[in-house]
Design goal:
4 domains; binds 2-acetamido-2-deoxy-beta-D-glucopyranose; five-stranded mixed β-sheet; Leucine-rich repeat, LRR (right-handed beta-alpha superhelix); single chain; Rhopdopsin 7-helix transmembrane proteins; alpha/beta; about 700 residues; 17 helices
């Protein structure tokens, strides 16, 4: 008796002075701490109990050593929680470090940035464990937690903020618990989850969000697992979901998962009741597929009804998954294989059998999906109406053929390159861009007809849409700019009719067009580098006005177009006045003809301007003047009018052009007689023209 007293005194001295290390680490009363390790087992617990001390919670922070060795925490009967935190020196947790702790319900190892190694079976035989957290550590290998063997229901596992943790190997969770488990695996560096990673577990909820490098879920990732009921892959880099193993997913969260451009496989997601996705067109596709599926399975489900349980989704999942834990689970019943997904009606009874909740409600709950279709992305094909589909083909073929002809003739012409010809060449090129843009849109529309929303994101965020959008803006603006330049040149030529030396020379024209190219290239590029964007609508036009910069961009385009239109109008009025001036040399009776022609030009210009202005105004001020569906009519029918009309109005219908064309044809061996006749005519008219300056207006400026 007497001899044991100094021992106890020694122990208390040790406790009060020896165990308090300089770093601030406090040794728990039921443990014994040494310079390089800690020991907490039934022996140390027993001696602490003799002093009337009993800890249910071990809180270890700022550990002063780098290893938690084997059997450090063993056979403790009273301890329910162990927390190890804020320990920068801790590097290793050895095999069987936490062994056989029958009362332990929670264990958390957090904020130990140097912790690299967690030994095999480090967490062994923890039957009451309900919560486990390994967060914000330096581990690179997935910790072995397969010998936890918890018997608790509703196990929660947190493995978060481990930035160096890159993979989840096969069978990583086998043996954690036989019951349902919630896995929060967010904010890790996980890149890849292997086949059979969840083998042998029942997953209630699997949160993989914020694993920003997570690109691959292998096809058999969920093989051998039950669930998950809730799957959260928000803010990951996943490009697609596995086609198998998602049969029991009721709630899918995939917000800010921008790489997930292809539609989640609905065939595999047939339990899906709630989806919160990144792209609204995916919702379009899911909802429409779901409608078809429900009505095919049972017509009584056509009338979507409210779901019986309006509580939060995870509770609902618990209810459904947990409730059916004893019965064979739905996903084990192979009645919805990909082949007979929609046809086997007789198997439908099984659903009610396994889902008592649904049985009670008697109806299929409606699928909820966000984000819903918005003004920019209505659930429809690119060409919303079928007449547009026809029109868009007609117009693009006309534009491409007309402008190619003009380019071909001008390039092969043996005549001297004059300023008007030079400008015409640019105009045709710009209009050809619009034609190609329309051709691209029309082709994609034809290929995705009837199910565009399934492909919407792949198209809109892909390179095709960027190229098309660039062509539309670049071509549209270059066309406007060139038209403006052509008109100015004509006006300049007419007002300086008598002073040949003051006319525009080719080098000046080249400079002006070079500036135009730079401006238009810039305008086309801006949406590609983040000012507005081409990805917003199916037509690939820059309709994104979320930022003030994007709004300014749209307003500048608007001002550019309106400015050009005003210049064209003013020039024509001035030309008309000049021509009608009695003092103007060589005034003739062709005035009305010229006036008519100008009216046509201004009118087509205006028609072409109208939709752009509509959009720009509507977009710039965020006032929906017109829906996207209706805007397509304007865009398809009016936007390219100039591109179709320009080659005819400015080139093909002019005498100079026809002369070139006949020369080309005669060179190719046909229409020889016509060409020579024309050459005669052209020659004589040329003579006449020299005396008639008004013909400048008709763009027959052959000096
Ligand atoms: C501590 O636990 C071990 C293994 O469970 C057991 O053999 C031993 O008797 C226990 N010691 C005390 C003092 O309870
Ligand atoms: C899946 O787990 C079971 C036991 O739970 C095991 O027998 C099987 O080998 C595992 N499959 C793979 C591919 O690891
Ligand atoms: C669905 O609703 C419509 C009208 O609300 C009703 O006429 C029809 O009978 C309903 N169908 C079923 C199968 O309940």
């Amino acid at each position: 008796m007497w001899t044991s007293t100094p021992g106890l005194v020694f122990l208390s001295v040790l406790f009060f002075y020896g165990c308090k290390s300089a770093s601030g680490f406090v040794c728990p009363r039921i443990c014994r701490c040494f310079s390089n390790t800690i020991r907490c087992n039934n022996v140390t617990e027993g001696s602490a109990l003799m002093m009337g001390q009993r800890d249910k919670r071990l809180f270890l922070y700022q550990l002063s050593f780098n290893t938690i060795s084997s059997h450090s925490f063993e056979d403790l009967t009273g301890v329910q929680r162990i927390e190890i935190t804020q320990s920068v020196t801790l590097e290793t947790i050895e095999t069987l470090a936490f062994n056989n702790l029958p009362s332990l319900t929670e264990i958390s190892i957090q904020n130990t940035r140097s912790l690299m190694h967690i030994g095999h079976k480090a967490f062994n035989s923890l039957p009451k464990l309900r919560y486990m957290s390994i967060s914000n550590t330096g581990i690179r290998v997935f910790p072995d937690i397969t010998s936890v063997n918890s018997l608790e229901t509703e196990f929660i596992l947190d493995i978060c903020d481990n930035l160096y943790l890159q993979e989840i190997p096969p069978n990583a969770f086998t043996g954690v618990t036989k019951e349902y488990i919630t896995m929060n695996l967010y904010n890790n560096g996980i890149r890849e989850i292997h086949d059979y990673a969840f083998n042998g577990t029942k997953i209630d909820k699997l949160v993989l969000k914020n694993n920003r490098n997570l690109r691959v879920l292998h096809r058999d990732t969920f093989k051998g697992a039950t669930g998950p009921g809730v799957l959260d892959i928000s803010a990951t880099a996943l490009t697609k979901l596995p086609s198998q193993g998602l049969e029991s997913v009721l709630v899918l969260l995939a917000q800010s998962a921008y790489a997930l451009k292809s539609l989640p496989p609905l065939q595999g997601l047939w339990s899906l009741r709630e989806a919160h996705l990144t792209y609204n067109s995916h919702c379009c596709a899911l909802l429409s597929l779901n409608r078809n599926r429900d009505s095919l399975i049972n017509p009584a489900w056509k009338n979507d009804s409210t779901y019986c349980d309006e509580s939060d989704p995870s509770a609902r999942v618990q209810q459904v998954l947990g409730g059916s834990a004893d019965t064979p689970l739905l996903m084990d019943v192979p009645f919805f294989s990909a082949v007979n997904l929609f046809v086997k009606e007789e198997d439908f009874g099984d659903v009610n059998f396994h889902y008592p909740e649904l049985d009670f409600c008697q109806t299929q709950p409606a699928l909820v999906c966000t984000p819903e279709a918005d003004a920019f992305n209505p659930c429809e094909d690119i060409a919303g109406f079928s007449f547009l589909r026809v029109a868009i083909w007609f117009i693009n073929i006309l534009a491409i053929a007309g402008n190619l002809t003009v380019l071909l003739v001008i390039f092969t012409s043996r005549n001297k390159l004059t300023v008007p010809r030079f400008l015409m060449c640019h105009l045709a090129f710009a209009d050809l861009c619009i034609g190609i843009y329309l051709l691209m849109i029309a082709t994609v529309d034809l290929r995705t007809r009837g199910y565009y929303s399934q492909h919407a994101i792949e198209w809109q965020t892909g390179p095709g849409c960027s190229i098309a959008g660039f062509l539309s803006v670049f071509g549209g603006e270059l066309s406007v700019y060139t038209l403006c330049t052509i008109t100015l040149e004509r006006w300049h030529t007419i007002t300086n009719a008598l002073q040949i030396e003051r006319r525009l020379v080719l080098t000046q024209a080249v400079t002006i067009m070079a500036a135009g190219w730079l401006i238009c290239l810039g305008m086309g590029m801006l949406p590609l580098v983040g000012v507005s964007s081409y990805t917003k609508v199916s037509m690939c036009l820059p309709m994104d006005i979320e930022t003030p910069l994007a709004q300014a961009f749209i307003i500048i385009i608007l001002l550019f177009n309106v400015g050009a239109f005003v210049v064209v109008c003013v020039c024509y009025v001035l030309i008309y006045l000049a021509v009608n001036n009695p003092e103007f040399p060589g005034r003739s009776t062709a005035d009305t003809k010229i006036a008519k022609r100008m009216a046509v030009l201004i009118f087509t210009d205006f028609l072409c301007m109208a939709p752009i202005s509509f959009f720009a105004i509507s977009a710039a001020f965020k006032v929906p003047l017109i829906t996207v569906t209706n805007s397509k009519i304007l865009l398809v029918l009016f936007f390219p009018i100039n591109s179709c009309a320009n080659p005819f109005v400015y080139a093909i219908f002019t005498k100079a052009f026809r002369k070139d064309a006949y020369q080309l044809m005669s060179a190719m061996g046909c229409c020889k007689s016509k060409a020579s006749v024309y050459r005669m005519k052209a020659y004589s008219s040329e003579k006449a023209i020299r005396n008639n300056l008004r013909s400048n207006i008709k763009n027959t400026t052959q000096e």
